[in-house]
Every structure is written in C-alpha cells, then in structure tokens.
Task: structure prediction
Amino acid sequence: MSFIALAAAAGLAIALVAGPVGCFVVWRRMAYFGDSLAHAALLGIGVGLMLDLNLSLTVLAVCLLSVPFILLLTNSPHVADDTALGILSHASLAIGITSVSLAAGGSVDLSSFLFGDILSLSETEVVIVICMCAVVGTILAKFWRQLVYVTIHYELASVEGLPSRRLEITLMLLIAVLVAVGMQVVGALLIGSLLIIPAAAAGLLASNPERMAWIASMFACAAIVGGLALSWLIDTPAGPSAVVVATSIFAVAKLIGYARN
Amino acid sequence: MSNLLSLHNIHYQLKGRTILQDVSLSLNAGQIVTLIGPSGAGKTTLVRIALGLIKPTSGYCHRQAKLRVGYVPQKVSVNQLMPLSVERFLSTSNCQRQLLHEICEQVSIQHLIHQRINNLSGGEMQRVLLAKALLVNPQLLVLDEPVQGVDVTGQAELYQLIQDISKRLNCAVLMVSHDLHLVMSATDTVVCMNNHVCCHGHPESVSAHPAYLELFGKNIEPSLALYTHHHNHVHDGCSHDLPTIEEEHKA
Result:
C-alpha cells in the first residue's frame, strides 16, 4: 500500500477519535494536561531507546503512568493547578528531549518525534494505531452520556449515583492512550493542538454536545487530509501542515460565529 | 416514624480547622428544615455530608435505603464552548420526555428549554436546577442557597414554590439560607448554626432565641436584615451576583 494511503488511514483514525476526546479537553480546560502527557511521551521514546524496547509500548506505558503522577501533583494544595501543569509540561519536554539525546547519542532525528512522521509509518504501525483508536472510541461512546454529565456538574452526577471520580480517571486514561498513539503520527508538540483546535472550532458552531463531537471529528479529519495534501503538493511537513489547516478552520468558524451574533 | 435522613454527632475537620462540631439533625417525610448561619458556618459542608459527597471526620450519616435525593447545587456553570441547552441539561437524568415537560411546566420554565444554560438569569437558573432535582421524583430535596442571585420578589416566589412542591410530593426539604425572615413562612424547622448548632426549632422561637440574636444582631427590621446577613459574603464563582447595598455604596 502506498505510504500516503497508510498515512491517511492512521491520521483519519486518530482524527475521528480526537474530535470527541478533544471536546472533553476543551470543556474541562485540560489543554495543559494533554500537553504534559504528550511531552511525557518523549520520555517514553527516551526510555524505549535506552532499553531497546518497542517505542510504541514504552510511550503508551509512560503516558498511562503519567496520569496518576499528574493527578497527585495537581491535587496538591500548595501549587496552583496551572502552575503545577506548566512545570510538569515543560519539565517533561526537557527531560524527554534530554533522555532521547542521551539514549541515541545525538544520532537520532528529534524532529520526527516533536513534529511526527506520519509519512513513514509501517503497515503494522498503522494497524496498531487504528486498533488503539477503535478501543478509545468504543469506550468513549459507551460512557459518553455519563462523561458529559460528570463534566457538566461533578456533584450532581455523584448525587444521582454516577461514579464521578472513576469516570474522570477513565477519561484521563483515554486521553493518555490517544496522546500516546497520536504523538507518533503528528508529533509530541502538535497532538495537543489536534485535540483542542477542531473541538474549539466545533464548539463555536454546534448546538449540542453530541453534534459538537461529530463536527470536531470532521474538522480534525479535514485537517489531516489537508495536511497530507499540502505535504504532497508543496512538500511541507505533514503534521504541522495539518495543524495549520485546523487553525484555518477555527478562524473560519470564529468568523461564522461573529456573523451569527 | 423512621427518619429519611439522620446525622449523628457529626464532626468535620479540614486542615486542622474545625468546620463542624457535634452536629446532629434528622428529617422526616414532608418536613422542611432550613439551615441558617453566617458564611463559614459550615452549612454547605453539612449539606455535602448529608448528600454523601464527603465523609465526616467522625459521627455518621444515615440515609434511608434507596432514598431518592434531588439536589440543587449553588450554581451550574459550564464551559462557554459547551453547547448545552436547558433541555439537554435536564435530560442528563434518564427520564421520560413527558415527565420532563410536565416538570418544566410545574416550575414555569417551558419557555426556556431551548435556551443555552449559560444565558440564564439567576432566577431562571435556580428554577432549572429545581426542575433537574425534581426529575428523580425525590423523597428528599436538598437545596444549597436556592435563592442566590434572585431579587427579593423572586426569592419569596421560589420559597413558595419549594413549599408547594414539598407538600405535593410529600418530600422532605433540607435547605441552606442566609436569611431567616424570608424563609420563615416556608419552613417547619430552623437550625441556626455556626460550626455547631446554636439553636433550633420553629422559626418564630428561633428568631427570639438569644443564640440567634447574638449571631444575627437584635432589633433588625426584616427588610434590613437581608442586607446585614449578606455583608462580607462572597459566593464562589458568582462575582456577578447583584451587589449588596454596601457594595453599591462603596462603588
């Protein structure tokens, strides 16, 4: 199969799931959380290179393990949440890059981890990406209504008998999985934007949470397709091009929003 | 008669500070109990313990098995980017559409169901939250400052509505209020608290009780008392509430 079809398959799988997941990231103000996870994923690359393990596995493991760590840090009463996540996000980026350089002795191309390398995915990698996205999407669909309820009001949901805390943690783990998978496609620096920008654009236009999730998915898919097209036509890097397209969609959505009001 | 809800010798400490000390309380079907007290008195904490949202440091809370509780929180504010209509908000509780519309009629919010939740006024929001609580067909209704951000006429109407609902559903009501005089006619029992229970009983007897007068001051006209009780009090995340008279003077 041609490399562009493989890239499109992986990119679209991630985009479809990034729509609804991104909605939660926007609604719950978890942008920093997503970034911290993506940066921690770099640490996963470093660990994988050092121990000579499968990078996808170490990235996934490090992302999942970061969740309880982030929870612990952000619930501390001494440091404000955004400060704590700001420290964590940039510290993990620095530690990640340092560990990758240490492991690879400077011979490795950092930019493929930072900005993704969607055009060089193997068939196996693409299959793994699609399977992981399917798992995340299925769990998300199953708990969608409950997750939305907990996001609207934690305590109302609790009083009505929902396991609010468990749902929140489930959501964070789902984000972690998607970030770990997406990081290999659009890169550690850009996966956060693929979560937030399409969802934010959709939020400006949608009339209910479900429609917002679908629109976000469509926007993310358009971004991926647009990014690949730009990369094909004018030879720009695919990941960043996708984010440029997403940002253009957001700008148009914003204009439409203004026009409506 | 067995209690729907009973709290026994509740203590609650947070970071070395005693928020609640030896508080006991019980509610029967159809009974309306109002908690009053200055801000920081632990009213909301007590409500949260009664709801089972937090555990007391010591003491215990007993709820009747399978008790259906309707909860009206202080406020619901969702992210501006969440497109949430009143109807979608209400249907987060799994209930039939017909029931949903009936309840909307009962609390007079039929005309609001397509509005965005973030565009509601204080009074509209409180009615929507009340409707949400009624969807579970509650045996116990718990309201944390149900008249927040509502003008005085609206407050009286809301209290009347709560009282009517309680009668019709024969459901118990536990609510938090700042002002005794406004809730007086709408409540059976008042619990005046300031980290511990200062006094409790019928509203008339509480309003004459020395412990109440010490907390809230003597010889205050009802209309003035409203403002006195509100001073220095800031609601979390509700800075756009109507300013009190004092704040207006400062401005």
About this structure: The beta strands of chain B are 5-14, 17-27, 32-36, 58-63, 69-72, 140-144, 172-177, 189-193, 197-201. Chain B touches chain A at residues 15, 48, 51-53, 69, 71, 73, 76, 78-85, 88-89, 92-93, 132, 136, 142 (CB under 8 Å). The mean pLDDT of chain B is 82. The radius of gyration of chain B is 18 Å.
